[in-house]
């Protein structure tokens, strides 16, 4: 009986691991700085292992195990907790990490106020870091901790669990560039700023710079602390300003209000997003056909009534499966040739989960068109699909014999023809009679 009970518990544990895996794979390579202890991040790493991830740890300067072999990544996800490392193994360079993203390998990177190779990597993703040695500081709220250990409120985001408690942060902020692929996750408090001194000796300079609003000044809520980046291939990267954000110390540390910090939940939500557990969508298939038909034709004719259907699913990390998803309400379909000729909403079909359908009329223009669906929202997987279809003009036997709008022209042509015929008949008939009379007169003489 005891054996059956232990077996049941083991089965449930294994089932729990299977039910919470990533949509892109479960192998994780962790590059951990020698100055950091794995035990100090047991809550974060242990939570990943309980979710079913297979974690492999490696020192930044070690060449084994390799991240990739012959251009093929060996891991689905890579975590870089290397705030003090200034030199890496040959297979870890900014270029190789960018190449991993192109192969659908996700990255979780912790930055630091020190100048490291990861600093230059962040600039490749449109993140602008302050000069080295200028961490984020804040004197509010009043607390016994130093100015560089800051409680930060968590804003609402589809990436994060609602009502997450504030998190402790210590590290470097970054300004956000103009890249549309950036996904802000955690922003700095409005009263915080980046400086190289924890006292207020430079408060006058800070105040004047704040009034001027000059470029290059890192202060206020417009700067980021944790920012995501999603590529066009839907691989994801997250840049966190400090590795302490994921530590056991900050996860257990009480907030100034007395509440427990939200670091543990926040770190888990960030990992779930970057590992493509959450907000992961895909287009399963698309269909198009004429109204009252079911098969896709080889070509359409101008002014045809076309029905377009798309089937979309979302990844459910609880069951490790893809399920129909009808939560998109602002998706559009474009029927385009160089420029969109038709742009129309593609709404979900009520009562049919995951199905989106719309009917429209093909334009009165022949050529090679594309049915294009492109949906991009921050945090969600990008949806894009293209189907090429030709549109031809009517054949010679498809035109109507008579056009109702042309009846006035028909009537004018017919009346003109009839009038010309009557006039010609009367004219010719009159000339013949006159000639006969003249001929009779000549003979009588």
UniProtKB/TrEMBL annotation:
Pfam families: OST48_MD, OST48_N. Subunit of the oligosaccharyl transferase (OST) complex that catalyzes the initial transfer of a defined glycan (Glc(3)Man(9)GlcNAc(2) in eukaryotes) from the lipid carrier dolichol-pyrophosphate to an asparagine residue within an Asn-X-Ser/Thr consensus motif in nascent polypeptide chains, the first step in protein N-glycosylation. N-glycosylation occurs cotranslationally and the complex associates with the Sec61 complex at the channel-forming translocon complex that mediates protein translocation across the endoplasmic reticulum (ER). It comes from the Eukaryota. Residues 1-20 form the signal peptide. Pathway: Protein modification; protein glycosylation. One of its GO terms (biological process) is protein N-linked glycosylation via asparagine. Residues 28-274 form the OST48 N-terminal domain. GO terms for cellular component: oligosaccharyltransferase complex. Keywords: Endoplasmic reticulum, Membrane, Signal, Transmembrane, Transmembrane helix. The keyword Transmembrane helix applies. The keyword Transmembrane applies. Component of the oligosaccharyltransferase (OST) complex. The chain crosses the membrane at residues 407-430. InterPro entries: DDOST_48_kDa_subunit (IPR005013), OST48_MD (IPR055459), OST48_N (IPR055457). This is Dolichyl-diphosphooligosaccharide--protein glycosyltransferase subunit WBP1. It comes from Paxillus rubicundulus Ve08.2h10. Belongs to the DDOST 48 kDa subunit family. Residues 288-429 form the OST48 middle domain. It is found in: Endoplasmic reticulum membrane; Membrane. It is a single-pass type I membrane protein.
């Amino acid at each position: 009986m005891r054996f059956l009970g232990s077996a049941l518990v083991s089965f449930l544990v294994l089932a729990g691991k299977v039910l919470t895996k990533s949509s892109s794979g479960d192998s994780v390579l962790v590059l951990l700085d020698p100055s950091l202890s794995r035990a100090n991040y047991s809550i974060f790493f242990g939570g990943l292992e309980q979710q079913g991830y297979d974690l492999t740890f490696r020192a930044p300067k070690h060449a084994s195990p390799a991240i990739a072999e012959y251009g093929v990544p060996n891991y689905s996800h890579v975590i870089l907790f290397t705030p003090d490392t200034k030199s890496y193994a040959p297979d870890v360079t900014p270029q190789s990490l960018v190449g991993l993203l192109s192969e659908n390998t996700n990255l979780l990177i912790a930055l630091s106020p020190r100048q490291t190779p990861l600093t230059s990597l962040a600039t490749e993703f449109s993140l602008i870091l302050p000069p080295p040695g200028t961490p984020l500081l804040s004197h509010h709220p009043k607390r016994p901790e130093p100015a560089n250990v800051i409680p930060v409120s968590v804003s609402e985001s589809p990436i994060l669990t609602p009502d997450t408690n504030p998190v402790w942060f210590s590290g470097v902020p970054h300004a956000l560039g103009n890249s549309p692929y950036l996904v802000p996750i955690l922003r700095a408090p409005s009263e915080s700023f980046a400086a190289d001194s924890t006292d207020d000796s430079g408060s006058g300079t800070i105040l004047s710079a704040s009034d001027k609003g000059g470029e290059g000044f890192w202060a206020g809520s417009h700067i980021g602390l944790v920012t995501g980046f999603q590529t066009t291939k839907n691989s994801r990267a997250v840049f966190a300003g400090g590795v302490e954000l994921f530590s056991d110390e900050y996860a257990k540390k009480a907030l100034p209000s007395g509440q427990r910090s939200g670091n543990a939940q926040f770190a888990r939500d960030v990992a779930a997003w970057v590992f493509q557990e959450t907000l992961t969508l895909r287009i399963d298939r698309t269909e198009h056909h004429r109204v009252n038909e079911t098969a896709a034709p080889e070509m359409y004719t101008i002014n045809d009534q076309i029905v377009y259907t798309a089937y979309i699913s979302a990844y459910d990390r609880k069951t490790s499966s893809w399920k129909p998803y009808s939560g998109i309400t602002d998706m559009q379909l474009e029927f385009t040739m160089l420029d969109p000729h038709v742009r129309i909403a593609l709404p979900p079909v009520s009562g049919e989960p995951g199905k989106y359908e719309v009917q429209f009329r093909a334009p009165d223009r022949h050529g090679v068109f594309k049915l294009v669906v492109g949906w991009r929202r921050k945090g969600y997987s990008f949806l894009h699909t293209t189907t090429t279809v030709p549109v031809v003009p009517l054949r010679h036997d498809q035109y109507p014999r008579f056009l109702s709008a042309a009846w006035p022209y028909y009537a004018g042509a017919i009346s003109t023809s009839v009038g010309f015929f009557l006039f010609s008949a009367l004219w010719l008939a009159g000339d013949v009679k006159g000639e006969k009379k003249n001929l009779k007169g000549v003979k009588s003489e």
